[in-house]
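Structure in, sequence out. Go:
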């Protein structure tokens, strides 16, 4: 075929091996990948492949610079609104713009509680009788069947979300508590994302009742701060109950040696993939411990002691939600996010636009994981 004198002959496009394309795409954020599914059928097939989803998940969750981490916030208005913003922006910018999230359950006047997050999946308790698994990055969700427990006044359901690595299955554990029964009877059920159904497992150990906080996922286990009734007396002990998600057996995790007589009831959380514990000391400090080697009592380390600023309302800190590589701790106080830097004992107050105060928060990773299939 002849070329006109003014026509320029372009060199052929370079050939890029499929393996290199996969390596490049697996390092991109979810929003880009959702758009790139429309490039061609082969990219659509690759980005939807379970192997690729797991590879992207591994790279996202192993990143230590917080670039793939976001925080979801529920505001304090009468209507149920959810916002999301990048964690890096809170740590490095004086102001952050939040994005509105379209919560899948359409009931704007009911505030569903955040149970927790795991590998990009968020779990919400829906009226205490079912849960919603939702990936806000891909906007895919799945609601569980109802628990159908015999609820009566005083009862509550405590949930926890975690991952059973040996069965490659995500599980929600529901602990139904009836304090009206002597020694506080519990009824424990597990929802498996693979089977999409609830099944009953062994109850909590006799006399042990979890407080109304969610189970915290660490190292294949869910962990609850719980109350253990001592004999027939009115006294009780604060303990940590651990449930192995593969074996579905219970264990007790020993807390550090802390100032029991002079502090508030401790609470559990997770930081950097480790179990953490916090409490108020003499209503003057917020003390944070971290268990660096899960299950080993000697590995508890006192991470930071955060002073309280004078406050007439007597609020407590909530969280912590995250700790940066340089030691800054992200918490909530008086419905606002704050950053504490232990290096100079200073506070920063990151401004979050489009929000007037926060009721709850949870950190999650941006992944492609689907609550419907994986």
């Amino acid at each position: 075929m002849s070329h006109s004198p003014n026509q320029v002959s372009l060199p052929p496009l370079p050939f890029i091996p499929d393996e290199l394309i996969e390596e490049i795409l697996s390092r991109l954020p979810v929003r880009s990948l959702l758009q790139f599914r429309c490039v061609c059928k082969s990219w659509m097939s690759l980005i939807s492949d379970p192997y690729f989803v797991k590879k992207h998940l591994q790279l996202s969750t192993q990143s230590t610079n917080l670039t793939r981490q976001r925080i979801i916030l529920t505001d304090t208005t009468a209507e149920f609104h959810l916002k999301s913003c990048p964690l890096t922006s809170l740590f490095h910018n004086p102001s952050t713009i939040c994005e509105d999230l379209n919560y899948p359950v359409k009931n704007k006047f009911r505030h569903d509680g955040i149970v927790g997050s795991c590998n990009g999946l968020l779990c919400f308790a829906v009226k205490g009788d079912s849960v919603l698994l939702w990936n806000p990055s891909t906007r895919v969700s799945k609601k569980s069947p109802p628990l159908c427990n015999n609820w009566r006044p005083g009862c509550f359901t405590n949930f926890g979300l975690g991952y059973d690595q040996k069965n490659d299955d995500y599980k929600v554990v529901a602990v139904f508590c009836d304090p009206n029964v002597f020694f506080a009877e519990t009824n424990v059920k597990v929802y498996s994302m693979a089977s999409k159904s609830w099944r009953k497992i062994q109850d909590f150990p006799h006399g042990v009742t979890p407080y109304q906080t969610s189970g915290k996922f660490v190292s294949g286990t869910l962990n609850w701060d719980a109350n253990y009734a001592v004999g027939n007396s009115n006294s009780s002990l604060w303990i940590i109950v651990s449930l192995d998600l593969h074996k579905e057996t219970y264990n007790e995790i020993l807390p550090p040696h802390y100032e029991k007589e002079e502090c508030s009831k401790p609470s559990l959380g997770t930081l950097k993939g480790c179990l953490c514990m916090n409490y108020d000391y003499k209503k003057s400090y917020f003390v944070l411990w971290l268990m660096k080697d899960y299950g080993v009592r000697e590995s508890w380390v006192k991470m930071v002691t955060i002073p309280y600023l004078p406050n007439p309302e007597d609020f407590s800190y909530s969280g912590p939600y995250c700790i940066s590589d340089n030691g800054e701790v992200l918490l909530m106080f008086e419905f606002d996010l704050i950053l504490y830097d232990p290096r100079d004992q200073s506070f920063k107050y990151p401004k979050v636009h489009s929000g007037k105060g926060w009721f709850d928060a949870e950190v999650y990773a941006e992944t492609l994981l689907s609550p419907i299939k994986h």
